Amino acid sequence: MSGGVKLIPDDTGAGRFLPWVVAVMVFLAALAVSGVLALDQGVRGWQAGFEGHLTVEVPAGRSADLDTRVAETLRILRSTAGVRGAVALDDAEHAALLAPWFGPDNPVADLPIPRLVDVELDTDHQLDFDYLARRLDDAVPGARLDDHKVWVAQLIRLARGVQFIALATVVLIAGALAAVVVFAVRATLSVHHDIVALLHVMGARDAYIARQFQNHALWMGAKGGAVGLVLAAATLFVLSRLVARLEAPLLDQLSLGPVTLVVLAFVPVAGAGIAFFTARLTVFGALGRMP
Questions:
Q1: What is the DSSP string of 105-158?
Q2: Which domain holds residue 27?
Q3: Of these four, 52, 56, 108, 210, which has the most CB atoms within 10 Å of its CB?
Q4: Which secondary-structure segment (H or E) carries 86?
């Protein structure tokens, strides 16, 4: 039984729909995996961007001594152990921060907006956050200290939750693909039952019979996976162009690097592998029940 007999024609049975099913599954899995990897890269970028920094907000108020209060804030910060440096943002930097809401020509100088001070921390010394907050409040009433930790922690928890859901979705997609392959193989076995039963009775090895089905499933899965990957790549390209047009610093971190692209290339390979091994196990199980 070593000849090249082809038991499973490509255009018969439920298996002919398998490439389209695999294409849809690979498309959805690739989007989910890309979301997981992009969020992971984004989380690392957010942590790196905010780690070692805090912000002091000096209220504008109604008085004209804003520059004096900012100078006093800088003096206190620079004289505090655990602070490496402090820089007050100028009008141009404030305008850039407000541009997404007010546009590029926003009248920063005419608005009673608070002044922001960017503080770089010294990682070699522990900063007494409460002590610094009291000093600022005594010297500059209304000054608010924000260390970003709570906000960043909440953002990271949200990102990790979305990643968990995306990974669970990938597992469900893999299970659904395996179930579809089982159905398709069983349907094809039913169509070719007489031939398979005859070969089995004549002494054909189970591995030979299974090879006909598993190779067919592998080929169908490879074709569908390639289509799904192309569709996913096109979708991700469009999404990346849309994100690039947004002026959102957090979204800038959600990009797909070379490693991510390599991982995505293995998604259709995984889909074809699932089809291959599921078909093999299904056929062996059916042959084992034959007399």
A1: T--GGGS-PPEEEEEEE-TTS---HHHHHHHHHHHSTT-EEE-SHHHHHHHHHH
A2: 14-47+161-288
A3: 56
A4: strand 83-88
What is the number of structural domains in the chain? Answer: 2
According to DSSP, the residues that pair with 54 across neighbouring strands are 119
CA angle (199, 201, 205) in 5-degree steps: 60
274 neighbors 221 (Cβ within 8 angstroms) = yes
204: DSSP letter: -
Which pair of structure tokens corresponds to residue 254? 């959600």
Amino acid identity of residue 212, one-letter, is: Q
| 136 & 28 share domain | no
Backbone angles phi, psi at 280, to 5 degrees: -60, -50
pLDDT in tens, 37-59: 888 877 777 666 666 778 888 88
Determine which helix (DSSP H) or strand (DSSP E) holds 48, and give its type and residue range: helix 18-50
Token duo for residue 179: 């179930």
